[in-house]
Amino acid sequence: MEPLPEPDFRPLGRKAYGSIPHLPGSRTGPADRHLSPALARICTERVRDAREHIVVLEKLDGSCVAAARVGDAVLALGREGRLAARSPNESRRLWAAWVAVHTERFLAVLQPGERLVGEWLALAHGTRYVLPHEPFVAFDLMRDGERLPWHSVTERVRAGGFVTPGLIHEGGPLGIEAAMERLQGGGFHGAMEPVEGAVWRVERREGSAVRVEFLAKYVRPEKVDGSLLPENTGRAAVWNWRPEAPQP
């Protein structure tokens, strides 16, 4: 029997997903950074020209995870790129088990070398959800450091029947206040607390092609990260979904 990889092993040799800079007024942590004012204005006020296209999506409050295709295998990873099955975190191990059950769906979406990144909502971090769908919501499809444009993401994930974040707006810029107003009442995914925020994707047409220029996010200032996690509360974990519960 081959020895199991070390817990710190990263199959891709990199993180599965990087950090997204914040828009002005967004709640940030010590390691976060803000987008430059010039780029923030493109998201919320004025694009540079008609070739720019803005997509605004609901930001979900869970664990960022990825499913990476290596040959004909699909590896369940945490955001940092480590194998979820080897994680000490129960929610990450549940993600690995879920990927194993749904491997054929991921293979229908991914080409070798690609990874599908999304939010794993099984464990409540700071927001409880009454999920109207399965606990994984896909928000990016990547190869190395390159993102597919949003219309390609939605077309590709349809082959696997995956859920994507609620679409707040598509077209020109959208202000932060307008975006958050559209998320009142629980947003698109059954949030029981105020929705965490929104993500702006700035894409640009170049001839017949479209590329993702950059992403930005806004998190409401009063949001407290991990306010429901047992290591912060001293109480039992709060689950939005468990495998023994009836699944949508």
Give a nutshell description of this structure:
The chain is of the alpha+beta class. It is built from 6 helices and 9 strands; from the N terminus they run αβββααβββαβαββα.
Structure description:
The structure is a single chain. With 248 residues, the chain is α+β, with helices and mostly antiparallel strands. Helix content is 19%, strand content 26%. The protein contains 6 helices and 9 strands; from the N terminus they run αβββααβββαβαββα. The protein has helices at residues 37-44, 90-101, 103-109, 150-158, 176-181, 230-233; strands spanning 52-59, 63-70, 73-78, 114-120, 136-143, 146-147, 167-171, 197-206, 209-219. A hairpin with a 2-residue loop joins β2 and β3 (73-78). It is globular and about 50 Å long.
* Integer-rounded radius of gyration: 18 Å
Low-confidence stretches: none
Strand % is 25-35%
| Number of E-type strands | 9
Widest sheet: strand order? 3-2-4-5-6
Assembly state of the chains shown: single chain
Order of helices and strands: HEEEHHEEEHEHEEH
Overall average residue pLDDT: 94
Shape designation: globular
Proportion in helices: 10-25%
Could you say which structural class the secondary elements and strand pairing correspond to? Answer: alpha+beta
Q: How would a crystallographer describe the biggest sheet? A: 5 strands, antiparallel
